[in-house]
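The methods section describes the discrete structure representation at length, but only in general terms. What matters is that the chain and its backbone geometry are given together, residue for residue. For illustration, here is how one protein appears when written out as sequence plus structure tokens:
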Amino acid sequence: MADRPPDNPDLPAGYRDVPPEDRKKAETFFQRARTVADTGNYDYAIEMYLQGLNIDPESVEAHQALRDVSMRRKVSGGKPLGMLQAMKLRSGKDDKEAMLNAEKLLAYDPGNTDHMLTLLKAAHRAGYYDTVMWIGPILQRANAELPDKKQDINKFLALKDIYADLKQFKLATDACQSAVFLRPDDMDLNTELKRLGAEHSMDAGKYGVAKSFRESVRDMEGQRELLERDMDVRSDDVMSRQIAAAEAEWQADPEEPGKIMKLVEALVRSERTENESRAIDLLQSTFERTRQFRFRLAIGRIKLAQLSRTERAMRDRLRKNLTDEELKAEYRAFIKDKTEEELKEFELWSENYPTDLSFKYETAKRLFMLQRFGEAIPVFQQARADPKFRTDATINLGRAFLEAAFLDEAVDTFRDLIESYPIKGDEKSKDMYYWYGVALEQAGQRQPALKCYSQVAQWDFKYRDVQERIKRLRSGGAPPQGGQPDPDRPLSYSPGS
């Protein structure tokens, strides 16, 4: 197989073609798989499909047929592979084997989005872009259909990046929009969404059963010049068309939740206040009619995104006018108000989704930002029960103990975390060692504190104010109170710092 077939110069680097003779060889296995699947021998059919895909990894028809067999197997009571079997398939000697191993795991557990993601990434690395275009929408749909609290933003981000790499900008935009709904105040993510939205009209070659990836690429090339002539105007036009199309679907079935949310997403994507207000009104009426909290949650996310957008604009003004004390005061007042509004939202979300500890973690962070340390402590303690937040929540818990003057509790929290944390020298290690040193120093344990700071300096000599702390301790100077101000405490934010 060639990385880039010489007779297809428009295909992106890395694309792997499958010779006709290999496709023909693989068909023998696919035919055998179809035959045995019809007899109900699903496990043998899966093996036959995988052997054929080892020869022709880009047979979308075979990929889909294998998935159909796996669904039939599951309905008939089939179970996932055992732990030992699954462990043997977690990797491969190369990207193709990793892809096929992931596909085997998925065949025995067809709803597992982790296996879908592994398959997607391995297919992309291997250059099997038709396979990417087959599994991508399956992963997107499976992740999006989960309850909000169980959706994995990293899967949407992976889809976004891979689709963008393949110049499938409409699909990349859709994946990015799903990610923005989970993380509405992420400035970089919102900027990326606008960029992808501006480019997505070049994705004229919609992928389908009758069209391969290479044909899609050729179709897109014809759209590129049109896109580049007037990006801003066309971006507005594209968004208007998206809103109109989503509204037409909604009008045809105005109580269907999926169509309501599609219209909301199209309105919000424009980042225009009038469209966002309309989206909020639509969500509010739907919430009042259905009493499903997910619609109220979407309202809150829109409002928080608006607050973040306002903050970015104010911060940009401040950076251009660093001596304007009135602007600084206005910014600090806004940050306090914004943080309080975020706190109200996250408390409401946590109340309605009590098992989603991400909302508790965000609640605790806002309490910390507002310097309500005593209230933040028990919420951080609850949030760290989620493995995804355990380390960050524990670092912040130790800092909350420190700020609330519970020095022994802060020291114990950081010590226990350091002992259990398996990695040394990464950003989290630096953070926990630094704050452990601060807690020790304030507790009067100067030599252990110096040892912590020294370890941080050996990892990263420019980390925070660690150099000054080491010099102060070695010279016998008095310790400063607290740590160096940082972005985790935006109420102490100093523009230009």
Observations:
- Residues 202 and 224 are 6 Å apart (CA to CA).
- Residues 1-10, 203-211, 218-234, 483-497 have pLDDT under 50 and may be disordered.
- DSSP finds 23 helices and no strands in the chain.
- Residues 293-320 form the longest helix (28 residues).
